[in-house]
């Protein structure tokens, strides 16, 4: 048995409430794997249950095996753990295609290898494939594609919204011919502008600027939309002072100092106004004595701070009313 099958048996045995709590701590990929196993288990015998329970050092004494409730059980758990909307999206993907298998395959490969493999494919095919991956992996792969191909793929990711099962089956064959579609008549969301923006947030600034410059020529409206939605380091300092103060408390002085190396005087002034006078003096001194630094190190520090701000936004600690901003120049 695979790990997903063992997890499915154990969770089906302990019931919906316990499974719901477990699912709340898993990522989407693990939930999809376990849900697929749940839906396909059928009858599970007592010896198999006992074997799984023993392996997980659980004490149990069931009187008989059970028959998997399949889709209905999965739906109830997903809805309780993730909400109706997200549950519907995951179930739709489970029933429409074996695209999760593609994600598993690509997740085991480094970005450069995947980019070399995909670079021979049509930009539309590349877009559909990478749009289903995690944003960080998507950005890494695109960064390794030929320069002339990068903007082409970005445009198509933004345009890809609904994909038919037939197209997904063709793409399955491109990646691994032995994979087959699970069928279904629905289509599901794989891309869109939101996906592009999320992917851009994982690119370094120089790569981001290069692609946006290309998009300015190839598709100006799309470039404008992306810029409006991108949240930059400078955007943090367009927030109100109370929000900035909350953000500053979550950031180390070393990270903040390095991130400010490329900042304007206006940004620096706003930072100093929203931290303690002692911390401000220390950062000013460090900036004065700091020698040349690599642009990539500055961007890394800024990206780290942006991630902290996004997490705070998710937790409701700050409210970001608008997005947008200019590139940072060093």
TrEMBL record:
Keywords: Bacterial flagellum, Cell membrane, Cell projection, Chemotaxis, Cilium, Flagellar rotation, Flagellum, Membrane
Membrane topology field: Peripheral membrane protein
Example GO biological process: bacterial-type flagellum-dependent cell motility
Protein location: Bacterial flagellum basal body; Cell membrane
Superkingdom of origin: Bacteria
InterPro entries: Flg_Motor_Flig, Flg_Motor_Flig_C, FliG_a-hlx, FliG_M, FliG_N
A single GO molecular function term of this UniProt record: cytoskeletal motor activity
Annotated GO CC locations: bacterial-type flagellum basal body; plasma membrane
Gene3D superfamilies: 1.10.220.30
Family to which this protein belongs: Belongs to the FliG family.
Protein name listed in UniProt: Flagellar motor switch protein FliG
Classification lineage: Bacteria, Pseudomonadati, Thermodesulfobacteriota, Desulfuromonadia, Geobacterales
Gene name in the database record: fliG
